[in-house]
Amino acid sequence: MIPSLRIGTAGWSYPHWNGVVYPKTLAGGFHPLDFLSKKFSLVEINSSFYQPLKPEVTAVWIHRVETNPDFRFTAKLQRCFTHERSLEPERIEEYKRGLWPLLRAGKLGALLMQFPWAFRFTPENQEFLIRLRREFSEFPLVAEMRHSSWVAEEAIGTFLDYKIGFCNIDQPAHTSAMPPTAYLTSGVGYVRLHGRNPHDALGAMDPARSGQHDYLYSEAELEDWKKRIEHIGRHADSTYVVFGNDGGGKSVVNALQLNALFSGRATSAPRELRRRYPMELERFRRFEQQCLFPAA
Question: Which CATH number goes with the domain that contains 41?
């Protein structure tokens, strides 16, 4: 395993996961974070993209994952900053209040600035990125760019100069799409795998329109990304890999598979998920752990 490698899913609150990832009938006291933190060491907070988090809620989330001391959250910065370009001090302070409990508890791995495809590398956008980085300087920041102009040498230099993590993404093909990369520009390595469904291409450019990402990565595609992740993790202080293909619980399937590729062991998988993906989860038995590869 790469030191400090964490693999998980983007979000956890999906009605279409009930009866697939989660039990169909939820017992009293059931919480998705309890469930996921027993299988993964990471989840990315989606709701923070749409509205500020409440400190009392994030405190509950911390409590829900305390049985896994290695568990971390990452969070998406609210779209009013990345898409509407708001820098109002009151909004910034309100947003930070919801993150303080996670940061102070040592549970916030990164704050992701997810920009739209239209946010291209220009002097104006470069300056805005730097200003946003300064406004949230207390947090470990990562930026996800959807437009390929951000792989220019000067653009990567901005990431390095201001210690902004570069989010390496896999997304559906479209005009001037960011290609698969393996960049490390700060101590935080970050990878987001959105899936390659061509019908989601517009969604890849505008996350507000994306809906469910319906794509299942093949083992060969995961192996290809494993090589990039190993390259990133070789020098990173921490590395986060997030699957955003939540349609049909596919992000959970692929996260389990990638975890197994790195660790050599298949952990348990939900029964209904194994029934729906029998080939992919053949080794992932409910009540046992199995060694995938011979011991060295």
Answer: 3.20.20.410
